């Protein structure tokens, strides 16, 4: 039900745009003088209609955004570092290549409790990566860029227990399809 309303609004808007184009195409076949006052009223009407639609769309979709509503402190901080071709997911900061290798090869999987507000601090040691979070049902639930020299933050409150995957959404080289990481919610 949550996804039906924005899709329905988009379909209604698309149909409206098609109707406007059809109307203009049919009306433009007849030669005639343009009445400036009527043209101005039509422009203002279309602008008001588009602004109203944009406001309606924001009213339905903005409350569903996965961002905290106030300046809450996260319950947990998880550090994620991308490097060709894997993600290191750790509860400790990863500041160099040896810490990254240790987290990927020998690190304990991160386990989070349901209901906790988790802040992912995401960066990269080499090129841009697109960090994406997938729930146990393989549904994309969050995405942020992993960029060298910059830390992006993504906050999320997990409710469903299970194994979550971290996959790369930005082509980063020949090993891109196998670039992944994971964590658990128990």
The CATH first-level class of the largest domain comes to Mainly Beta
How much is the radius of gyration in Å? 24 Å
Give me the CATH superfamily of the largest domain. Answer: Cupredoxins -  blue copper proteins
Number of helices: 3
Number of strands: 9
Mean pLDDT: 86
Strands of the largest sheet, in order across it?
A: 3-9-8-5-6
The assigned structural class equals alpha+beta
- CATH topology of the largest domain, by name, is Immunoglobulin-like
Distance between the termini: 27 Å
Low-confidence runs: none
Number of domains: 2
Task: Provide the β-strand percentage band.
Answer: 25-35%
Q: What is the string of SSEs from the N terminus onward?
A: HHEEHEEEEEEE
Please give the largest β-sheet.
5 strands, mixed
The appropriate CATH architecture of the largest domain is Sandwich
Question: What does it look like?
Answer:
With 186 residues, the chain is of the alpha+beta class. The chain has two domains: 4-64, no CATH class; 76-185, Immunoglobulin-like (Sandwich), CATH 2.60.40. It is 32% helix and 30% strand. It is built from three helices and nine strands. It has helices spanning 4-27, 36-61, 97-105; strands at residues 76-83, 86-90, 111-112, 117-124, 129-134, 140-146, 152-157, 162-168, 180-185. The strands form two sheets. It has a five-stranded mixed β-sheet with strand order 3-9-8-5-6, with no helix packed on it. It has a four-stranded mixed β-sheet with strand order 2-1-4-7. Helix 1 runs antiparallel to helix 2. The mean pLDDT is 86.
């Amino acid at each position: 039900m949550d996804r039906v309303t924005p899709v329905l609004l988009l379909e209604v808007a698309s149909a409206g745009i098609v109707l406007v184009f059809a109307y203009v195409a049919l009306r433009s076949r007849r030669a005639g003088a343009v009445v400036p006052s009527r043209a101005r009223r039509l422009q203002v009407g279309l602008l008001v209609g588009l602004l109203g639609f944009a406001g309606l769309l924001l009213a339905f979709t903005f409350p569903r955004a996965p961002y905290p509503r106030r300046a809450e402190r996260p319950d947990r901080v998880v550090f994620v570092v991308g490097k060709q071709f894997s993600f290191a997911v750790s509860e400790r900061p990863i500041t160099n290549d040896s810490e990254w290798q240790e987290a990927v090869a020998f690190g304990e999987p991160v386990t989070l409790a349901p209901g906790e507000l988790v802040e992912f601090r995401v960066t990269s040691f080499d090129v841009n990566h697109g960090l994406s979070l997938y729930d146990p049902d393989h549904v994309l639930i969050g995405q942020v860029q992993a960029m060298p020299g910059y830390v992006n933050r993504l906050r999320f409150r997990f409710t469903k227990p299970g194994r979550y995957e971290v996959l790369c959404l930005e082509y980063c080289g020949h090993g891109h399809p196998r670039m992944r990481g994971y964590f658990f919610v128990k």
